[in-house]
Amino acid sequence: MMKKTNFENFTIERDVSWMFFNHRILEEAQKKSVPLLERLSFLGIYSNNLDEFFRVRMASLNRFKEYAKKQSKSEYAKICQTLKIINTLNKQYAKEYEQIILQVQNALKAEKIFLLKEMELNGEQQEFIQKLYYEKLSGYISPVWLNTLKGLSNTADDCVHLVVQADEKFALMELPVSKFGRFIRLPDKNDKICLMYLDDVVRVCLQGMGFKTFSAYSFKFTKDAEIEIDNDFSTGFVQEISKGVKNRKKGEPIRVLYDSSMPKKALEKLLEKLKIDNLDTVLASGRYQNHKDLIRFPDCGRKDLKYPLWQPIRKKEFESESTLQLVSERDRFIHVPYHSFDSYIQLLREAAIHPETKSIKTTLYRLAKDSQVIQALMCAAQNGKKVTVIIELLARFDETSNINWGKKMNEAGIRVIYGVQGLKIHSKITYIESKQKSVAVISTGNFHEGNAKVYTDFLMMTSRKNIVSEVAKVFDFIERPYKPVKFKELIVSPNDMRKKLLHLIDVEIKNKQEGKNAYILGKINHVVDLKIIKKLYEASNVGVSIQMLVRGNSSVMTGIPGISENIRFQGIIDRYLEHSRILIFCNGGDEKYFIGSADWMPRNFDKRIEVLAPVYDELLKQDLKRIVSFGLKDSKQGRIVDGSGKNSSVENPEGKNFRSQEKLYDFYKKENK
User: Fold this and answer.
1) pLDDT in tens, 635-653
2) pTM
3) What positions carry a catalytic annotation?
């Protein structure tokens, strides 16, 4: 019998676990084994993630707090406690971040790459900067006196800003980073590569503007970026989203990072203009803000300081004349970025011109800037195929891009559907209807050429009638969401995904109680759904082994006797972002495999259209098992995810240098020979 336990006591807030995940990225930036320029990139990723966290999660928590204050004392107290923990962690990690920045800058100097300040320039470099400023930069530098500003609601929060003190006056200045980049390459000094922050270039050039005293201090602020959508859609869904995106620019500032040397009077004036109150986050920092620009730090011709190139592998089987014929013979797969995404594009291109193709339907969540996927779909429409594209307008921060692409596709003759009111289309599926044998593609990630270079995702291409017909039914459901529909093969939300996953876990519990082998293996991004977590604890408590790779948020406390001692979660931070979702259930020895787009979160189960598809092909199963088992053995880039935020290393009998991404790439490379 399972012990009675109050499971509520063994979960942590999703947003706190997100901070722990982000800290794993920060820890990666400290590793000397990571190539130096990649360490800089990790610091940029950390900063970018933190920006989005405050724009979305903290903004939502602040809104919930204001609501709960009037409605529920217990919820209000819970949210306040969560905010307190997050702010404590944020301050702790900010100090660690500054230390790592200094470590990395010292490591750059050891490689003869220098970030110079104003007093470190030689004559040639000073002349170079003055020429750059007067010929190019000056036209984009426009100081505005703070006293004349009524507020900063229309000021962008993704830029670098300076508060300039000129004599006794203060001015606000936005730096043209998008035009010139954050790091300016200077003439080299002897054999040293020299760079300078754009901030410091401006500091140098503004010194000679006739003021008796002059100084400049950087700051960074973050706005509430949640989009509020009016339930009245009489104006049209696209118009509502466009309006929401515009209003996002006027969101209230909720976080400020500032140069700790900024005069108190200037800081007070700035916070007044930003309308910051005591509920918001204000943090003293170093000389430079907006460190996300480190993602684009110049490589300075030093390829040896970056990861060695792993060229995407073009599987030999896809060198066949007909990809459609290949898929009609048996299920095929690619695992990007290890395998080339071109194989999927090749499938679309062939379908676009094949005389047997009747129609193509696909879901698009995020779209590449120069999307070959869309080019193939436009080609299909121009060739007389019926093409339907489901675009999710509420793909966060990609709304404007998706609207623009939708207009272009409409003009090309493609039928564009902008999602479903109240449900986000998060499934990644393609349906190619043929007069002979129709084909479907189920992916764990976006059909996005850019993402396919850095996100690990699994794409299954199949002509199995039972799966293909149900993929077609998903598109019918999207077009007519209020029409009842049942699925036998696919697991689809918001229909019954949570219910079916709970049933699959129940089967493992029952089998274990009957003395059979029972386990759950998987790879997923987030685990925060309370009902799923309770069921996992229940399974662990009867002895079911649960081993999963969890990249991001996890509200599961693992290894607790009588609760979760049979649960082991690990996370991997490496050169590729772990993104694929894979589930393997023992099922009494007859394993069940699933891939799809859904994480174990309430929003995925209740507020999104998601798809998990069964995998039947033995070769695909072998690869999915390999992906998960390699990840669980990763002792170089793997970290224990137990809810404590300690990020302990993974122990592997095979040694401390088992790196799953490297092992997978090597395997695929050998396999393709």
Assistant:
1) 999 999 998 888 898 988 7
2) 0.91
3) 426
